[in-house]
Amino acid sequence: MNIFIMGAPGSGKGTFSSRIKEEFDLNHISTGDIFRANIAGGTELGNQAKAYTEKGLLVPDEITNNMVKDYLSHLKDKKNGYLLDGYPRTLDQAKAFEQMTEGTDLMVDEIIVMDVPFEELTRRITGRRMCKQCGEIYNIYSKPPKQEGVCDKCGSVLTQRKDDNEESLKTRLSEYAKNTEPVIAYYEEKGMVKKIDATSSIEEIWPILKEALSQ
């Protein structure tokens, strides 16, 4: 089972990716992991990507596509498939990946889309607070600390990421709508998309997501 998991910032992709990985024994891979591994390893593709990132430029789709394919094809333990997070981000990437993997065991089987309305995404992102000391994450709306601004676990001061504000979220969602929503529409035409209403709590969403993947 090979899966792409997609969703807007704050949709819970990271949280549910971890659960899917454990439940179905899949390789969970993010494009960030792939880039870091190639750059740190000094591979040819990594060096090509580094030449762009060091200048603050976007890495061309061709390099990203080849990096993803190479990484997946060299997995030592293929387990029961892969769960890929953060790719494809554009329609060109989706079509290129389809061509590169056609007829191989790397072809994607289904697309999971975590669907959350804008109002809920705003609450999740703007309400997020993090503890730099122990890494615990809170939300002032849905999971507030017992004492405002203080971590329950270690007593350290909670902080908010600079881009966890409504203005930054609107920018990120605009990019998502422009680049990623056409990818989802492309796969919907192929009947490969399973949309999950990810508005409610993790405990309520997980059984629905698990059943959808088990079908």
Automatic annotation (TrEMBL):
Pathway: Purine metabolism; AMP biosynthesis via salvage pathway; AMP from ADP: step 1/1. Pfam families: ADK, ADK_lid. It is found in: Cytoplasm. Gene3D superfamilies: P-loop containing nucleotide triphosphate hydrolases. Zn(2+) binds at residues 131, 134, 151, 154. Coiled coil: none annotated. It is an enzyme of class 2 (transferase). Residues 128-163 form the Adenylate kinase active site lid domain. Residues 30-59 are annotated as: NMP. ATP binds at residues 10-15, 128, 137-138, 200. One of its GO terms (cellular component) is cytoplasm. InterPro entries: Adenyl_kin_sub, Adenylat/UMP-CMP_kin, Adenylat_kinase_CS, Adenylate_kinase_lid-dom, P-loop_NTPase. Its EC number is 2.7.4.3. One of its GO terms (molecular function) is ATP binding. AMP binds at residues 31, 36, 57-59, 86-89, 93, 161, 172. Catalyzes the reversible transfer of the terminal phosphate group between ATP and AMP. Plays an important role in cellular energy homeostasis and in adenine nucleotide metabolism. Consists of three domains, a large central CORE domain and two small peripheral domains, NMPbind and LID, which undergo movements during catalysis. The LID domain closes over the site of phosphoryl transfer upon ATP binding. Assembling and dissambling the active center during each catalytic cycle provides an effective means to prevent ATP hydrolysis. Some bacteria have evolved a zinc-coordinating structure that stabilizes the LID domain. HAMAP family: Adenylate_kinase_Adk (MF_00235). Belongs to the adenylate kinase family. PANTHER family: NUCLEOTIDE KINASE. Monomer. This is Adenylate kinase. The gene is adk.
